[in-house]
């Protein structure tokens, strides 16, 4: 069909004339409003398609007070974000879910502690909501989100305190404590008796939960068998060297993530320790790019990082009224109204949050 409006961008009025309906009808259909007869909806949609009409985003924002965008805030230095596969997986899950709901992802990196810029952006009405993860105890992002009134879903169980009801904020997490228990029990069942732990940053709940899981299985264990890491390969290597100097008789290591386990493996080889012969090694995350490429391949705890990203996005979209799933249909089959609390294994209050299960993946390192 020839273009009835050559050289011009089709307007709302042009679509209305082409479809033989009023401008108000076209506006209601384009903006997703209800109350329009299906026969008219079909006429408008056909006209939009044939004319190649693209809605004016700025005008729509003024009317609906929605931007169609969601901020993703990662509270880590850029070099870690782009070197740790955890972040790319989580962002990929978020992106897939937002794309499926025609929502734009806006990545906000916190570099050099520039939180004033984050606060100005959120307060400026540029996004409808926010997703934030890898936050630390004293991170100002929760207070910023609360002050600006931007609906926010968090990745990881909250550890911060901003207001008495802050523990009601929605979040998505893995069963870090349960996964750690499974890892340490596996090492104990292999007959290992001097099981060390390379812990993650103490100001992040994923690390503290994994440390608690280690201690659940080895209650009253030797505190010298715990060394501090920072979720990086280099920190894992440093912690492993410290442990070997302090406890040369150790026969197993549970590292709080795969990157630290890879660093630990490198030091074990440098010190002449065979894996798993002399020292059995288990990580956490099951990052394929790490766990399957080490030599030997790494036994680790699987968490669905991409799935967590999708769940975070879906919980936020539900808060924004854009998720077309039923109220009782939790994302990907997970119970969204009550969950197992990774801290104590009990039922948590209805907070609209999800704790996803973890499983042990056995490979050659343990």
Your description of this structure?
The chain is an alpha/beta fold. The chain has 14 helices and 12 strands. The strands form 2 sheets. The chain has a 6-stranded parallel beta sheet with strand order 2-1-3-4-5-11, with helices on both faces.
Structural class: alpha/beta
Give the overall shape. elongated
Please write the string of helix (H) and strand (E) elements: HHHHEHHEHEHEEHEHEHEHEHEHEE
What's the average pLDDT?
A: 84
- Number of beta-strand segments: 12
Characteristic key phrases:
366 residues, alpha/beta, six-stranded parallel β-sheet, six-stranded mixed β-sheet, 40% helix, disordered N terminus
Report a brief summary of the structure.
This protein is α/β, with parallel strands linked by helices and 366 residues long. Helices cover 40% and strands 14% of the residues.
Lay out the secondary structure.
Layout (H helix, E strand, L loop, with lengths): L11 H8 L3 H8 L7 H14 L5 H8 L4 E6 L3 H4 L3 H16 L3 E6 L5 H9 L5 E5 L7 H8 L3 E4 L15 E4 L1 H14 L5 E5 L5 H13 L8 E3 L4 H14 L5 E4 L2 H13 L9 E6 L2 H4 L7 E4 L2 H15 L34 E3 L2 E3 L5
Parallel strand pairs: 1-2, 1-3, 3-4, 4-5, 5-11, 6-7, 6-8, 8-9, 9-10
Antiparallel strand pairs: 10-12
Helix pairs in contact: 1-2, 1-3, 2-3, 6-14, 7-8, 9-10, 11-12
